[in-house]
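Example record

The entry below shows one chain as it appears in the dataset: sequence first, then structure tokens.
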Amino acid sequence: MPIVFDDTQEMLRDSALAFLKDNAPISALRTLRDTHDPVGFSRDLWRQAAELGFTGVLIDEAYGGSGLGAVEAGVIAEAIGATLAPVPFLSTSVLGASLLGLFGSDTQRSALLPEMASGRHLTALALDEGSKHRPERITLLARRHGDGYMLDGSKVFVVDGHVADTLIVAAKDAQAGPDGDISLFLVPRDSAGVRVERCVIADATNAARVSFEGARVPAYALLGRAGNGAAMLDKVLDIARAVLSSELVGIADATFARTRSEER
């Protein structure tokens, strides 16, 4: 079934595309790539995106966001695809905002969502552990330790993991209870026992390998209910896949337009 944008969505699409064409042309990505920029994106660009409301598209207005939905996030992602803009939109504005908005406690949402909407705080989902995307195969272990948890294991292809302020870590929790054995934890990237190694994927996507060696987190770092991580991921990954599909549409449209212009 085709999606027909309303006036607000049309305006958002035009605004996002114009902004990114002016401020994040493909040449900007090439410069970041060829100079081996340690961050991999422009923080100033991200700040400007926040001022326009793009970073908080899935964050409720009570926390400084736009309070819109997945269609609007997809509209922005389509513009990102058309310009290949290297921004932490998927990691922070889609995955992080959705997980915290849907499942975070009042304290977690109040502490993180306003900072994310303003562009001052970045998140990254530490999920995959092998060369293929298999979110159901988690071996990173979370053990109860005192009044909190201890994490041991490693993650790969953590998108924007090298710059994230908070890592959202999927871990196997054998003591979780009847809901399952996967729990999610909010872990500051600079925590003791956390080692982050930046890597760049073939398509120039920013990512990282993250190792956890006896990394301790308090009980309040648990996101949602213990053992409910798989169900939480199912819901949020569906949102992210839909948004990524829109980004691919933007890439395809821009490629088609460029091909036609070169044929003339």
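Notes for this example: Residues 124-224 form a domain with the Butyryl-CoA Dehydrogenase, subunit A; domain 2 fold (CATH 2.40.110.10). The helical segments are 7-23, 26-34, 43-51, 70-83, 89-103, 106-117, 229-263.
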